[in-house]
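User: Thanks for the earlier help. One more: Protein ABHD15. Can you show the sequence and predicted structure together?

Assistant: Of course, both are below.
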Amino acid sequence: MLEWIGAACFMILMAILWPVVKCFGAESHSTLLLPRRESKRSAERCDSKLEAQGESATVALICKPSALANYLLKHCMTFCKSLSISKWNWRMSSSLQTVYGALWPFDCPVHFIRDHLQLSDDGLVALDWAVVGAAHHKRRRTSSNSTSPVLLIIPNSFGKITRNVLKLCEAALSHGYLPVIFNRRSQNGTPLCTVKLQQFGDPTDLREAVRYIRYRQPAGQIYAVSESTGSGLLLSYLGECGSSSYVTAAACLSPVFRCQSWFESGPTWLFHWALLLYQKICLSRYKTVLGELVHTDNIFSSCSLKAMEEALFCHSGLKGATTEGAGSWEAYWERNDPLRDIDEVAIPVLCVCSQDDPIRGDDQATLPLELFESNPHFFLLLTAHGGHCGFSTSDEGPIVWSHQALLEFFRATTDFFAAEERAKLAARRRGVSGAGKTFRHRSVSTCKRLPVCSHNIHAIYNWQRSYTR
């Protein structure tokens, strides 16, 4: 009910402001950001196909030229397909796109089976496995012998399960994936069993969850998708784990890259207020227990996302100098910046962004284009319109354009690496040293069908106890 009210109020507000926004903002979004010199060749290949069809180029792939990039452009049709949005359609409004993707009610046919995973410090995180079927099938478990790929979905850092996430689960199931949503401590109904919240870019809990998924589905490859600010956690995990991440490929939908400056400046005032209010509502449930760790008055009286993050994790709100996580604002981001270990990422990562994203902010200041132009593992799919995790089109079918793009990306990267493996095996049989032109920067772990965990999984979890509910 609250989602309906919020969406209706926002629609009325935007209906009033839309003519003004259209008048003053159309010119700023009329052209697409040109890729830099190194990625110009890839972008031109897409643009030329669109111009031949008489369409306006609204999508660009920005990346370092490589064999994998050429393969993606050849086999991912979504990468070379413009977003079909008429000039006066409501989808031209980035704010309406954002609200539609986050709050618009959706009659989801997907149900979830929840696993509560007890961590090494006795904390709890929840894994919601998506299944299709009636409610009485909710207790059905997926087979550990299944070879179906697992799609690990990391929602935004505020824990809100959006329409975008539900649509992604539905699309993944239709393509043969086993979708599972990772819920942080205290979020989305997960009990808070320890007086500890997960810091923005701390991948410790996610690392244990991935090991559990690997134990439960040893025959299936793992792919990862993050939404919005949840991309900070995914990028931190991929950077810290490197080639030992057990993930074959990953994608980030509307990621926030420069997180410290984002918390300091914040999104536009309306979205800033909505995010701050939602976080306060979620934390109010644990006000008493959090009072043992932080000054809750500082949390619930904070007027910005930065002030709340500081009150939760930095010295200004912590009780006692020995409390874990105490430190300055700068020290906090030295530990939690998603880009701190970005050079260690060893798998292909697709980032889907729009220029008119009202949450991330100005694309010139918030998109690290140098990362995509210099690192062969990162690919930026940039659109002129789409808002924040919206990407709704006029001719939209059952699958959202951004979801179709990442599913094609996963299939293409898997096929590319499989073709490389076949070429290497054929070369070995012929007695040829080397395998010709291959993707040099590829992670070794993606070659393995059944990676062996380097850790003693039984020392981490006590499998004799039940951690599921």
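User: Great, one quick takeaway?

Assistant: The two ends are 27 Å apart (CA to CA).
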